[in-house]
Amino acid sequence: MPIVIQPYRAEHEAAVKEFNLRLKAGGADPDLVFFRSAQPRWLPPMEGSDLYQEFFVALDDGVVRGGYALKQQNFSFADGSMRRVAYYHHPLSEGIVNKAYAVVGSLLLKHAMNRSPLLYCLGMNGYDRPLPKMLVRLGWAHCLVPFYFSIVQPYRFLREMQALRGSSGRRLLMDFAALSGTGWAATRTLRAWRRFRAPGIKPFTVEKVDEFSAWVDPLWQETRSAYAMTAVRDSATLRTLYAASDQHFTRLRIRRNGSDIGWAVVGERRKDEKYGAMRVGSIVDCWASPEDALPVLRAAADALEQSGYDLIVSNQSHHQWGRALEQCGFLQADSNFIFAASKGLAALLQPFDKNQSLLHFTRADGDGLPRNF
Amino acid sequence: MTPTIFEQVQRIASDLFGVPGDQITRESSTESIEAWDSTQHLNFVLALEEKFNIQFSPEEMDQMRNIGSTVKLVERKLQNSPR
Fold first, then answer.
1. Are both A199 and A312 inside the same structural domain?
2. A3: burial class by Cβ within 10 Å (0-12, 13-18, 19+)?
3. B37 contacts in A (CB within 8 Å)?
4. Which positions in chain A touch B46 (Cβ < 8 Å)?
5. Smallest CA–CA separation between B43 and chain A, in Å?
6. Is the ipTM of this complex over 0.85?
7. Among partner residues A5, A58, A103, which is closest to B38 by beta-carbon distance?
8. Which residues constitute the domain of residue A84?
9. In this complex, do B62 and A95 lie within 8 Å of one another by their Cβ atoms?
10. What is the mean pLDDT of each successive set of 10 residues along chain A, which is 373 residues long?
């Protein structure tokens, strides 16, 4: 009997639980768990909503062999058009522990492609993982979304950044740099130098707001065509993504001479062993015209520093936002955050080599929400 | 002479899997062609869709385990597609 892919319903929950147990028993990464609940807890489908998630399962005579999720959302393109694009995420196949089901991964993707010809993936933890490997072989357009970090507390960074303390030699070096103060001096000097060399920023004000409201909309309309592609970031969308009831986020409104120039959403990143005991803040999402990226990011970074974070991180796809982060003293490191576009979507982004640095994608567009916060 | 459906499918499979066309038979399958893995299977299906202007469901894709069943599926799709 062929494998059938259907919307995930409550009647499948027991079978999904069994599926998750088989993955665990097969030695899969413990983080690889399909959604226990058929109803998305975040962005469930609602009457009249343009922004929602859908879950699907692959059924083999009633036994779940895999599943995936789609986030359906409107996107704006440089030509002013708006289109519905789906974010394909959390695909899981029993093929990762049992080769008899190796085909499930491609069946899941085919189902998603049939459902939403305009499809993207974001994140995926690097090109050595199965999904990005498949997408590259399928001819999807792809690029890395650059990753930036700012060391707020050099001592803590040098002592806790596990990703850099992989050998005894490195640990010794980093401990020396921490204890002698040379690490502090070096990072502070570099940051000050970058900020010194940055263009002067005209005065701006920053206000923490409890929720996004109508002031977002004129700014959105005026600036959206500056980007080759961006998720719609109007007030209704932001109220859904960053609901006032969600205490994880700090919402910032940035103005100059009384006019809105941008906004940012910052928050604490979920604990990750690579960061050790550090408190890591993230510039989760942000918006402005590219020319105003610098004051918005300065506001976001300052807010996180004042909240006592040891390290601040951000992924930004647009080259001007990346440059602005560097002008704020951020450093760039290797990224494993990949953007991949289906052929249908890539056709709207030609020439891709040029437009890839004009996309506006942040952590919030991928696996950053809500898992990492 | 217009190539048959089988010949067209054979050509696509040959190009995709890197196997000489005359070695692609109706019995050729995911078991007998080393390069025919799950990702290339999807590429194969997408190439057929583009060539014949049809769309396969995942269930149909899962039935295409060899060239013979693939050809039959394509022929059925073309017979049923609106003119």
1. yes
2. buried
3. 102
4. 138
5. 6
6. yes
7. A103
8. 4-116
9. no
10. 94 98 95 94 91 96 97 96 97 94 95 97 94 96 96 91 86 87 85 84 95 97 97 96 92 97 95 90 96 97 95 97 96 95 97 97 81 64
